[in-house]
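User: Predict FHA domain-containing protein's structure from this.
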Amino acid sequence: MWTLNPLEFGGVTHYLLPEKEYVVGRKNCEVILPNDQSISWAHAHLTARDQALTLKDSSKYGTFVNEERLSGDTPRSLTAGDRVTFGVFHSKFRCVTVVVCSSCVDNEGKVSLSQTLQLLGGRLTNTWTQDCTHLVMPTVKVTIKTICALLCCRPIVKQEFFIELTKALQQKQPPPKAESFFPEIDEPSLNKDEVDLTERPERKELFTGKTFLFLNAKQQKHLSLLLEEGSVPVSLLESPLSCVIGMATGKSQELLPHSTKKWADSVGRILQRYTHCSIIKTECSLNVFHT
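Assistant:
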């Protein structure tokens, strides 16, 4: 399945089923763009075939792919990530293939979800990547996948969302809203009244410009999905834009090599010198939830 995801906040997502043809226009068509005077009645034609999506322009003011205007006689094959503009105003979208990641879903639920997605032409994965468009959870818990979905502004929904989406598309009804299928929050560390699971663009910038330093490989592995890798000198410890992820205490620390613990102690002394302190990984997670 393909979707046209609006590039402007508050826009409508349009779902495109495989083996279907869609007319984009202002009224009485499959993809309606009603509040843009530069949209023709039959502005463009979209054709979905298996994993392919083609676009053909038939408008007065034009259809653009990655800022390039299409010729009305030549269909254009689209790829995931392409930016499509219909007309000359605010009808701007990004082409996306539906890739659903699951978290805390049992095996029976995964089989059922995979079967539903097959009807839609979507795909289920167990690993979060930047290509994922949705995260499915029975209840919301603090997991790395949850944090990734929030930071990427991807909807977190219950499995029932895709069941209702299938029904709506088959009956040519408006698709369900993701916020109507948010899972219940089931995490002692979270206050339900203070957590907002809706798309919040400011989350994308939460860690921008910050450098994370890990004192052991285990901590780096847990949070590596959120951050870009790089080599950082210890001199960055004095920077207010550096975040040092502290090591676990108790029995977990006892298993670490003496050299690692010695280095961590030296890092702690440097942080104290600049009146800084290390943070634990759960603080990063909670910061995302409360942004």
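Helices lie at 107-120, 144-151, 160-170, 217-223, 251-254, 258-273, 281-289.
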